Structure formats: structure tokens, C-alpha cells
Amino acid sequence: MDLKIKVKFNRENMQKTKPDWLKIRPPSGKKFVDIKKILEDLKLNTVCTGARCPNLGECWTHGTATFMILGSICTRNCKFCAVIKGKEGETLDSSEPGRVAQAVEKLGLKYVVLTSVDRDDLPDGGAMHFANCIKEIKSLDENITVEALIPDFGGNEESLRKIADAHPDVVGHNIETVQELQVHMRDIRAGYTLSLEVLSKVKQMSSSIYTKSSLMLGLGETEDMIIRTMDDLKSRGVSILTLGQYLRPSVKQLEVKEYISPEKFAYYKKIASEKGFIKVMSGPFVRSSYMAHSVKIKKVKN
Questions:
Q1: Measured between alpha carbons, how far is 61 from 67 in angstroms, rounded to an integer?
Q2: In what order do the strands lie in the sheet with 145-149?
Q3: HSE-up of residue 247 (Cα within 13 Å, Cβ side)
Q4: From CA 78, how far away is CA 85, in angstroms rounded?
Q5: Helices (H), 206-288
Q6: Which of 13, 127, 207, 212 is 20 to 30 Å from 274 at the Cα level?
Q7: Domain 24-292 falls in which CATH fold?
Q8: What is the mean pLDDT of each run of 10 residues along the chain (302 residues)?
Q9: Cα separation, 283 vs 169, whole angstroms
Q10: DSSP per-residue letters across 14-28
């Protein structure tokens, strides 16, 4: 019995051991403190804290934050995510779009990322609320670039149309992982084909919208699987791709199978760029909204 306990302990230590390139920089600096206070004063959620993003310190210090709207409770139960789960989310706050716009104005943001939890408990999945946030930000200054990182809305075209009609500059929807691992990682209501359909429909609804998706690596996928996923995304008109290392938020989520080296991430970036993606962010700490403002968007009048 003592031997078994020792073996289990050693395995847990091995799982927790990370390579040197995965050292997380703690948040600091006046800009970080100022942003934290503004968000707290306006009672706004960010995916930075809700999803325990490793880039929180870096992004906030540089004056960038990703707003998480529609509450903090997600109705999906994906096995990689640390966001609070529930059958129903919180009551929608009609003042949230205005408060998000206030934060954008106070922070002087020129590139804003909006994301949300899944709200399967709402008739339109929260699409109209999402659209209202986009419109409020655009009302400040139409030159502000807005990236909407949306859930799949069950593929509902009416919900997706509400997003497209709000005229975001970028619509992101994360496919999360390769096709072979979807069932092990994502909620049963999500799926590889559904995510591809969502990205394709948005592009069909507005050709002026840049579409974007993201892959987490280190969960057991192979190189061939990753390249095949790139091809599937590119064939659906996706322009921007991010590739990052999956990091286990807590012992309740899936274990990391492999830590991908920075060199391997650079290799995947080269492949994706050669396939024609206009922007590729690829690295251990890259997340779907990481350095979003670095993408040079050519605005097209709708």
C-alpha cells in the first residue's frame, strides 16, 4: 500500500513539473492596478481572471483586457475549462453593454475583445446582448476595432445574424482541438463540424468580417491532425489562427499530455503562414485573444 501511494505521488509531481519556458510572469505595474480598479468599479468580468489566463499580467500591464459578458456561469461543461458551470446563467444585466463601453472609454482602448460564457438557457444564446455590447462600443468611435469571440449558439443562423449585423471587425470562434479529441474535451453540445459551420456562416453573412479560431496543443494530438485542422479552418475562410499550449487550470480539468516546445510552435506558425492565414500567433502562452491588437485589420465598409 505504501508503494502505491508513493507511485501516485510521483506521478502527480511529474504532471505538475513544467519546462523552463512555461514560467508565468506575475501581474504588476501601475497600468495593471488601474485596469483592475476600473473593471471592479464597473462590476465587469474578464476572461483574463475567469479562465485563469497565464497572460493576465502581460496583457493588463500593456492596457489590454478581454471582457467576458453574459455573466460568469457557463451552461457548457467542457473538460478543459475552469469557468464556473451551471444549468442556468445569471439574469441578463441590461446595463452591461453601457458599462463595457464606459470601461473602453476610460481605458482608451482602440482594439476591444468581447467574449462570453455559453448561455444555452437563453432563447438566442445571448446573441442580442452580445450585439448590443458591440454597438455600444462602436457608438463611442466607429474606428475602434471590435473582436467578438463568440460561442456556437447551437449553429442558429438567426443568432449568428445578430452578431454579423452589429458589424464587429473580427469574429472569433474557437474550434479548441483536433477532430479526434473533441469528444474527450468539449461539451456534448459542441463539436468540430458545428464550429466549422459557425465560422463559415459568419463569413457568408458578411465578407468584410475577418474570422478567427484557436487550437490548444498538448492534449495528445499529432502533427497530421493539427495540419488537417488548419486546412479545414482555411477552407471555411478563417483568416486568423492562434495556437497555444493547454495548461491545466486545476486538478478538476484534463491533464496535459505533452508540453510543446517553442521551436515546435514556431514550426507550426511557419506551416500555417504558408497556408495563407493572414495572421498566426503561435507559442506556449498564446491564447485566442493574446496580442489581438497586433493584427492589422483593414476595415471594409459594410
A1: 16
A2: 66-69, 111-116, 145-149, 170-172, 210-217, 240-245, 279-283
A3: 21
A4: 9
A5: 223-235, 262-274
A6: 207
A7: TIM Barrel (3.20.20)
A8: 38 59 65 74 68 55 74 93 91 95 88 93 97 97 93 98 97 97 95 98 96 96 98 97 92 93 97 96 84 59 48
A9: 24
A10: HHH---GGGPPPPP-
